[in-house]
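Issue: copy button drops trailing tokens. Both records pasted manually instead:
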Amino acid sequence: MSERCCMQIGDLAERAGVSTRTIRYYEELGIIGPEERSGGGFRRYCDDQLRRLQIIQGLKSLGFELEQIRQLFTLRNESETGGELAHQMIEILRGQQKSIDEKIQQYVELRERTTCGIAVLQGCQSCEIPVLERDCHNCEVYQRHDEVPDLVECAIFGR
């Protein structure tokens, strides 16, 4: 085993905090590969693959999908100049920004609906009517609100 490649797949998985199955899956996708194979066919990895796995995990935690990550890693081989590489990376990152903006909007809407739901339910905390006998839609607390979010509706909606 060369000094540069000192890890087998289990060691790499442990150091990277992923499973060997994950590494094999990433290999199938072409995101990572062993540095070399031993005479017996064992995969051997070095610190470069460990760093690559750490980058992959970091990008995943930021919301990048595996296909986007694969694209980022293959850009170097597909670009002839640094300018072309930068242009392609900018396009990928702009797509990621758009996705982030859409998620932010979804979270803002969810937060508003949650806040509204809390406001509706705070008025219901003193309700003494048994759950199966109540008619929330005709309750004055419920009717005070122009809109009752589906988060609340799902709990009070009758059969």
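Record 2 (pasted manually too):
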Amino acid sequence: MKTRFGFVPLRLLVLVAWGALAIILTTQSDRLPLVHLMTSTIGSTEFGDALGHAGLFGVLTFAVYMALAICLKREWALPLTMGIVLALGGLTELSQFGVWHRAPSISDLLANSLGVFIVGFTMSYLSMLRSRHLS
């Protein structure tokens, strides 16, 4: 099978690792040392928290896209990726109802969505430039 973006196992490893990190950081209590470290450094202000959520879900969007692009056309992989990561962002926020010292937040959900859409539009724009350059 020919791939367009490189080494398949590496892409899948990055996807699993970053996905696990995103889920851990957004669903666990700050009693977990990694979560405490991130919330006390990056998430110590509202801007930092939003930037952290947008970055985390933006990179997750890129990782999922790179994994889906292995077996799907780009036209299908990008919207499917965005839907999957947006749903995951919503689910992680809802799961915070049951976590000690965590509460779901509309601002976090919007920041998650911002990261997804920035990467989605960037990938779409780059794809458009690539197709225009090839023709």
